[in-house]
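lol so apparently i was supposed to do this last week
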Amino acid sequence: MSHESDSTNSSRRRFFAIAGSAIGAAAIASALPREARAAELPHLTASDPTAQALHYNDDATKVDKAAAPTWKAGEACHNCNFFQGGANDAWGPCQLFPGKSVHRDGWCAGYAKKA
Ligand code: SF4
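anyway here it is w/ iron/sulfur cluster bound
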């Protein structure tokens, strides 16, 4: 085929218009407050190597107490200084696990009581 029809050109224009909008939306999303994007972060899992090293569990009551003896009843991500989720967020970013979100009821050995 040596030349393209008008309809091919017009669908190509539509594609670029849509792609342009998607890029625009991504730029807007990256400008949103951190909390607004927290829900999009992948959840940290206990199989993550750093999570394993810090004995993270997304249910603080199920932390391996023998391996992580510093855990105390009542300690959980939502009252940790490193938790950056909102007060009502089930999951939120943690400064110790960049790019991941941790569960508000989780815990790891990096816990520091919120001031
Ligand atoms: S540092 Fe704090 S918020 Fe982050 S995973 Fe550990 S206990 Fe949770």
